[in-house]
């Protein structure tokens, strides 16, 4: 079944709105950064795609990984092969079937990850919706 882009966007948008369009951040052992974006972050926050991954399917090893479509990217290197397998697992949960699906989710995720005062998340999500022919959810 093809990925439902409107459903993904709506779930991500409403989840981020519920946390006041604040990024989901967490500190990870062994990281040289004090905190970075996370599918599941401090204070119960989630990133854009984190809102679309059901709690029962979330795995802590998803942190730090992007999304890969099922038919692309292979590696003979065991370390890279494992990362690719886990990225494909995330993609499968989100319904990724094509490279275009991966790019769509990657752009949505980067809006979350790269938001700041000079690049506000809400406005960037609304522009993303317009570029992709999506409807921004309204308050009910």
Q: Which word captures the global form?
A: globular
- β content, as a range? under 5%
Number of helices: 4
Radius of gyration: 15 Å
Largest β-sheet summary: 2 strands, antiparallel
State the helical fraction: 40-55%
Distance between the termini: 29 Å
Strand order of the largest sheet: 1-2
Which structural class do you get from the secondary structure elements?
Answer: mainly alpha
Regions with little confidence, pLDDT below 50 for 5+ residues: none
Q: What is the typical, i.e. mean, pLDDT?
A: 88
Q: Count of DSSP E strands?
A: 2
Q: What string, H for helix and E for strand, traces the elements in order?
A: HEEHHH
Tally of discrete structural domains: 1
In short:
The chain has about 140 residues and is mainly α.
Structure description:
The protein has helices at residues 5-18, 78-94, 99-113, 121-131, and strands at 25-26, 36-37. It is built from 4 helices and 2 strands. α3 runs antiparallel to α4. The chain is globular, with a radius of gyration of 15 Å. It has a two-stranded antiparallel sheet. It has one domain (5-131). Helices cover 41% and strands 3% of the residues. The model has no long low-confidence stretch (mean pLDDT 88). It is mainly α.
Name the descriptors.
single chain, two-stranded antiparallel sheet, mainly alpha, 4 helices, 140 residues
Layout of helices and strands:
Blueprint: H1 5-18, E1 25-26, E2 36-37, H2 78-94, H3 99-113, H4 121-131
Antiparallel strand pairs: 1-2
Helix pairs in contact: 3-4
